[in-house]
Specification:
Pfam families: MST
Protein name: DinB family protein
CATH topology: Four Helix Bundle (Hemerythrin (Met), subunit A)
Largest sheet: 2 strands, antiparallel
Distance between the termini: 15 Å
Strand order of the largest sheet: 1-2
Oligomer: single chain
CATH superfamily: dinb family like domain
Number of domains: 1
InterPro entries: DinB/YfiT-like (IPR034660), MST-like (IPR007061)
Structural class: mainly alpha
Organism: Nocardioides panacihumi
Strand content: under 5%
């Protein structure tokens, strides 16, 4: 197998070292959790072994998109949907929010170890909180309707979880391209 930056036979890691898996989930909730777990791991893998400066490297001008910005953005997204929408924790301080800079997740992603550590800590904290909530759910709760904003809009738990999978899928695609630009490493 190749150990070049282009991966291992087209894969990101040797198959025996890849933490992502297809657990053959049974049921709707288990399927969502499996996809979320694997996409979260994919984003983490795409950020692995890079310096703070590399993590903060912008994709292409004039975009603010960077791997570190994606981690910060996903912490914000996890909080928005799992805490605010699904649990109505509306009084909590939202991570990476600044009324003067709606892109603070990305513009505030700077190449320092402190910024990197804080971003990954916040993202993992939000994931743990989401997983705690998901652990209490069932397949039957997926169709539950709920109000998710002050405008009175309603949706289902299912819709929010599908949206979370969609968010990670889109941003892991961004992460693939950014990582390839940084060091040429590619793979699933």
């Amino acid at each position: 197998m190749s150990t070049s930056p282009t991966g291992y036979a087209g894969n990101w890691l040797p198959s025996d070292q890849d933490p992502r898996f297809d657990s053959k989930p049974v049921g709707e909730l288990a399927t969502y959790r499996d996809y979320l777990r694997n996409y979260r791991l994919t984003l983490e893998l795409k950020c692995a072994d890079l310096t703070p400066e590399q993590l903060a490297t912008r994709s292409v001008p004039p975009s603010n998109l960077s791997l570190l910005g994606l981690v910060r953005h996903m912490a914000h997204v996890e909080h928005t949907w799992f805490q605010r929408a699904l649990q109505a924790n509306l009084d909590e301080q939202r991570p990476y929010t600044d009324p003067g800079d709606p892109d603070i997740e990305f513009t505030g992603a700077v190449g320092t170890q402190e910024c990197v550590d804080e971003a990954f800590e916040e993202w993992k904290r939000q994931i743990a909180r989401a997983e705690d909530w998901l652990h209490e759910q069932s397949d039957e709760s997926m169709a539950t309707s709920l109000v998710y904003n002050s405008g009175g809009d309603t949706t289902t738990v299912r819709d929010i979880l599908v949206h979370m999978v969609e968010e990670y899928a889109r941003h892991c695609g961004h992460a693939d391209l950014i990582r390839e630009c940084i060091d040429g490493r590619i793979g699933q």
